[in-house]
């Protein structure tokens, strides 16, 4: 029902004008029904002049004769005068505003007879001299609601009344009826009659609803009434450009603090990160289409997508009555809890893939409470940095709850990037001011490969995904936006980049993606001789920019490491090394290649094959001390002092390529802290100014948070070095340390084998100049989208031989050929090792400090 309209009223003559400028209004709504014997339910109000509305027939009957009752509504506006006239008496001069009847559902039976319900709403205000405006209603039993302090205390009383069939009066029948308690409804402030403007409306008080606090009153109109479906609270899939189908929930426009969605669109709040988008209904699907929209590769590689799936299925399970244990999804849980969460997630996915049985799609419908646009925002969907807004009433400034919440960072609807790119084409906007990955205007740096900018969120995605490769050797995600469901892979055998269809059509030109698909082979925008493709322009200095991007991507500032002056040649001593996670003794091999004398080389290693290689190739130069977790301070003091501490903890639980990774604080990720502990023990004591160096290595494709944590403990930022610059294979790694000149450019030496052909045996031909990153998996040898072997021999494709892989890594031929190890075992050893040319690049400055 629309509230009564408040307009400016004319001045009244007499003393009342000078004493009161604000009219007090009272509304009394009486819903009445005539009984079969013509008794009037408003007998007590015979003296009140009012306009009776035409009767409105009400469906159904309330007596055995089958006669229908008609309801009438009378609204009486009353105001007290200063001369103590009663509130009822003052109604004689007041015109009545007639409102349509409000249907009241249901009836109740008493002594076998049906009762019609009536609503008697009385708005009352006390006069200045303490007289009650409801003196005429003293005999009506009703519960008085808590008052709200305003200009005058106002009270609201809702009385449910029913006429009995035995001639009971409407007022008398109220004695046995319980009163429904509602909070006071605030009146609008009245303006001074002489004022030409209307006063601003005060904010409505919060309404208690269970344990939650809701702000505002019910809206006048309903949202999303265009007949296209997808109402408030429904669980849906949405398709944004550059992303897989993503689960979300339809929400009211009040949550977004934006205007109502246009016809044919819906506001969607995404599970996983809690962000908001305005979506066309054509790009929405119900959650019941799970088997068609769920994308397993994205689930395996993106933690946010896994979290979104977990949350939406947990919500759907609650609605459908599916007994899934409720628990919070987190990437940092104890090992047992992580397995439990993953097991539960797989159970939910199986339930969703089989049609949400037994209730089916109907069980996913939102309950009535969630269809209310003023229901509190679903807090389980929001990240701490993207909490919800409170829901303000329309056309008013947003209110803040008593508990302050952080606000949404940014809302980017689906068409933002398209609209901005159109403005760039029309030369109304500079592309350097736009994040070409997502369309955000909140940019922080330049895109390293193409002309354009990048926001912080896309920067983090680029850091994680730029060196993440699928089993076919290509990047897992688009080079431009680090997303995309359908991607185009470069036909150049030496390139591993891919581009999503959405980015190509938007930045290069409509239909260019389809043209690229039909072109075979298709050279990507990083491989072509020309550099301009529509709005996509390759930077001329992209190689140096990419290296600087990873070198300067640090959000944390640390003190620069201590610099040691070079030692005079006559004072240089042999180096003493502590190698943790030693592998196949790459560190010792490089030191010997550089000619640096090694006094002591203590290595911690648990792999028997690696120990065998070290013992055979370096005779008794290595002292193996077993598991790093068993080394204590006493051991360090006994074996030391050390001049160089090196190591690289296992990357299995840190690499984002591993969908079951446990992170830095669980599984093998915790071994980093063993390195940190022993590094601290091996440092020179205070007052000892001898040169001391250290180096820690790990994979580039790790989570941004893990990289920040490692940097915080080591108190320095990493340097990213890719072995492709000095070898025939891609191998990007982060290096933390205090070695001199770690940031200097990587330069190949004369003897470095930069092409795969230089690493092959006679009679064999390389199909590629460089191979993808060689790991412990046998299929990492295959190259390209068609999974070709990298070598031709006798007109047939062939794998890399072990001796050829050793040359690719920079090791001497047959370095791992010990103890009758199989080809796969030797590949595992090499896949866990360091690239020799890269370590030589890092260790070369040590020649200025130690004897050669």
From TrEMBL:
<dbReference type="Pfam" id="PF17980">
    <property type="entry name" value="ADD_DNMT3"/>
</dbReference>
<dbReference type="GO" id="GO:0008270">
    <property type="term" value="F:zinc ion binding"/>
</dbReference>
<dbReference type="InterPro" id="IPR018117">
    <property type="entry name" value="C5_DNA_meth_AS"/>
</dbReference>
<feature type="active site">
    <location>
        <position position="651"/>
    </location>
</feature>
<dbReference type="GO" id="GO:0003886">
    <property type="term" value="F:DNA (cytosine-5-)-methyltransferase activity"/>
</dbReference>
<keyword id="KW-0949">S-adenosyl-L-methionine</keyword>
<dbReference type="InterPro" id="IPR025766">
    <property type="entry name" value="ADD"/>
</dbReference>
<keyword id="KW-0678">Repressor</keyword>
<dbReference type="InterPro" id="IPR049554">
    <property type="entry name" value="DNMT3_ADD_PHD"/>
</dbReference>
<comment type="similarity">
    <text>Belongs to the class I-like SAM-binding methyltransferase superfamily. C5-methyltransferase family.</text>
</comment>
<dbReference type="Pfam" id="PF00855">
    <property type="entry name" value="PWWP"/>
</dbReference>
<keyword id="KW-0863">Zinc-finger</keyword>
<dbReference type="GO" id="GO:0036269">
    <property type="term" value="P:swimming behavior"/>
</dbReference>
<dbReference type="Pfam" id="PF21255">
    <property type="entry name" value="DNMT3_ADD_GATA1-like"/>
</dbReference>
<feature type="region of interest" description="Disordered">
    <location>
        <begin position="1"/>
        <end position="20"/>
    </location>
</feature>
<keyword id="KW-0862">Zinc</keyword>
<keyword id="KW-0238">DNA-binding</keyword>
<keyword id="KW-0808">Transferase</keyword>
<dbReference type="Pfam" id="PF00145">
    <property type="entry name" value="DNA_methylase"/>
</dbReference>
<keyword id="KW-0539">Nucleus</keyword>
<feature type="domain" description="PWWP">
    <location>
        <begin position="232"/>
        <end position="290"/>
    </location>
</feature>
<dbReference type="InterPro" id="IPR040552">
    <property type="entry name" value="DNMT3_ADD_GATA1-like"/>
</dbReference>
<dbReference type="InterPro" id="IPR029063">
    <property type="entry name" value="SAM-dependent_MTases_sf"/>
</dbReference>
<dbReference type="GO" id="GO:0005634">
    <property type="term" value="C:nucleus"/>
</dbReference>
<dbReference type="InterPro" id="IPR044108">
    <property type="entry name" value="ADD_DNMT3A"/>
</dbReference>
<dbReference type="GO" id="GO:0003677">
    <property type="term" value="F:DNA binding"/>
</dbReference>
<feature type="domain" description="PHD-type">
    <location>
        <begin position="423"/>
        <end position="555"/>
    </location>
</feature>
<dbReference type="GO" id="GO:0010468">
    <property type="term" value="P:regulation of gene expression"/>
</dbReference>
<keyword id="KW-0479">Metal-binding</keyword>
<keyword id="KW-0489">Methyltransferase</keyword>
<protein>
    <recommendedName>
        <fullName>DNA (cytosine-5-)-methyltransferase</fullName>
        <ecNumber>2.1.1.37</ecNumber>
    </recommendedName>
</protein>
<dbReference type="GO" id="GO:0009266">
    <property type="term" value="P:response to temperature stimulus"/>
</dbReference>
<dbReference type="InterPro" id="IPR000313">
    <property type="entry name" value="PWWP_dom"/>
</dbReference>
<dbReference type="GO" id="GO:0032259">
    <property type="term" value="P:methylation"/>
</dbReference>
<dbReference type="InterPro" id="IPR050390">
    <property type="entry name" value="C5-Methyltransferase"/>
</dbReference>
<dbReference type="InterPro" id="IPR001525">
    <property type="entry name" value="C5_MeTfrase"/>
</dbReference>
């Amino acid at each position: 029902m629309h509230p009564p309209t408040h307009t400016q009223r004319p001045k009244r003559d007499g003393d009342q004008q000078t004493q009161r400028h604000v009219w007090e209004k009272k509304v009394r709504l009486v819903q009445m029904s005539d009984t079969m014997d013509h008794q009037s339910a408003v007998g007590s109000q015979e003296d009140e002049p009012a306009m009776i509305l035409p009767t409105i027939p009400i469906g159904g009957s309330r007596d055995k004769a089958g006669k229908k009752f008609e309801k009438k509504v009378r609204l009486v506006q009353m105001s007290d005068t200063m001369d103590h006239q009663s509130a009822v008496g003052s109604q004689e001069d007041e015109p009545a505003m007639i409102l349509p009847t409000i249907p009241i559902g249901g009836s109740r039976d008493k002594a076998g007879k049906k009762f019609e319900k009536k609503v008697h709403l009385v708005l009352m205000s006390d006069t200045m001299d303490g007289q009650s405006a409801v003196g005429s209603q003293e005999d009506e039993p009703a519960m008085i609601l808590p008052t709200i302090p305003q200009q005058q205390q106002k009270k609201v009383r809702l009385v449910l009344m029913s006429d009995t069939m035995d001639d009971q009066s409407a007022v008398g029948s109220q004695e046995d009826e319980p009163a429904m308690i509602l909070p006071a409804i605030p009146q609008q402030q009245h303006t001074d009659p002489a004022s030409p403007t209307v006063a601003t409306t005060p904010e409505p008080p919060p309404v208690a609803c269970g344990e939650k606090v809701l702000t505002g009153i019910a809206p006048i109109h309903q949202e999303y009434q265009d007949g296209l479906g997808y109402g408030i609270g429904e669980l849906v899939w949405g398709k944004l450009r550059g992303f897989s189908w993503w689960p979300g929930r339809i929400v009211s426009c009040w949550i977004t603090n934006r205007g109502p969605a246009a016809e044919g669109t819906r506001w969607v709040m995404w599970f996983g990160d809690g962000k908001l988008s305005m979506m066309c209904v054509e790009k929405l699907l119900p959650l019941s289409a799970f088997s068609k929209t769920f994308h397993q590769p994205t689930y395996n590689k993106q933690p946010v997508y896994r979290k979104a799936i977990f949350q939406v299925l947990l919500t759907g399970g609650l609605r459908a009555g599916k007994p899934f244990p409720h628990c919070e999804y987190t990437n940092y849980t104890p090992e047992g809890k992580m397995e439990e969460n993953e097991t539960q997630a797989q159970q939910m996915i199986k339930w969703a893939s089989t049609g949400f049985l037994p209730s089916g799609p109907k069980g996913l419908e939102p309950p009535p409470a969630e269809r209310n646009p003023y229901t509190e925002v679903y807090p389980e969907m929001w990240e701490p940095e993207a909490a919800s807004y409170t829901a303000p009433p329309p056309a008013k400034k947003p209110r803040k709850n008593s508990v302050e919440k952080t606000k949404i960072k940014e809302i980017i609807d689906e068409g933002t990037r398209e609209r901005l790119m159109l403005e760039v084409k029309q030369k109304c906007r500079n592309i350097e001011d736009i994040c070409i990955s997502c369309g955000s205007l909140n940019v922080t740096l330049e895109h390293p490969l193409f002309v354009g900018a990048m926001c912080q969120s896309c920067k983090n995605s680029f850091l994680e995904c730029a060196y993440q490769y699928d089993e076919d050797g290509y990047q897992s995600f688009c080079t431009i936006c680090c997303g995309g469901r359908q991607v185009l892979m470069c036909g150049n055998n030496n390139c591993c980049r891919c581009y999503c269809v959405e980015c190509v059509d938007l930045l290069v030109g409509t239909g260019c993606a389809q043209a690229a698909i039909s072109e075979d082979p298709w050279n990507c925008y990083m491989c072509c001789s020309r550099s301009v493709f529509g709005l996509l322009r390759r930077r001329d200095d992209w190689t140096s920019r990419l290296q600087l991007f990873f070198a300067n991507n640090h959000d944390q500032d640390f003190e620069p490491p201590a610099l040691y002056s070079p030692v005079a040649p006559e004072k240089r001593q042999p180096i003493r090394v502590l190698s943790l996670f030693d592998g196949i003794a790459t560190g010792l091999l490089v030191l010997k290649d550089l000619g640096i004398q090694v006094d002591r080389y203590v290595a911690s290693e648990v792999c028997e094959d690696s120990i065998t290689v070290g013992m055979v190739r370096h005779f008794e130069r290595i002292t193996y001390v077993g598991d790093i977790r068993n080394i204590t301070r006493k051991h360090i003091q006994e074996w030391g002092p050390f001049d160089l501490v090196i190591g690289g903890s296992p990357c299995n639980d840190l690499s984002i390529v591993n969908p079951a990774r446990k992170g830095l604080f669980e599984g093998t990720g915790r071994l980093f802290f063993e390195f940190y502990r022993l590094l601290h023990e091996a440092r020179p004591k205070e007052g000892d100014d001898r040169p001391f160096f250290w180096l820690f290595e790990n994979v580039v494709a790790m989570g941004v948070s893990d990289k920040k944590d490692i940097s915080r403990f080591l108190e320095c930022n990493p340097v990213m070095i890719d072995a492709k610059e000095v070898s025939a294979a891609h191998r990007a790694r982060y290096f933390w340390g205090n070695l001199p000149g770690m940031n200097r450019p990587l330069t190949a030496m004369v003897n470095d084998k930069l092409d795969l052909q230089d690493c092959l045996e006679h009679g064999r031909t390389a199909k590629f100049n460089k191979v993808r990153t060689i790991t412990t998996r046998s299929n990492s040898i295959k190259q390209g989208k068609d999974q070709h072997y990298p070598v031709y021999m006798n007109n047939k494709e062939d794998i890399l031989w072990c001796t050829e892989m050793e040359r690719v890594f920079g090791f001497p031929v047959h370095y791992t050929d010990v103890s009758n190890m199989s080809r796969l075992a030797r590949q595992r050893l090499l896949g866990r090792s360091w690239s020799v040319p890269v370590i030589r690049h890092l260790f070369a400055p040590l020649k200025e400090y130690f004897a050669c």
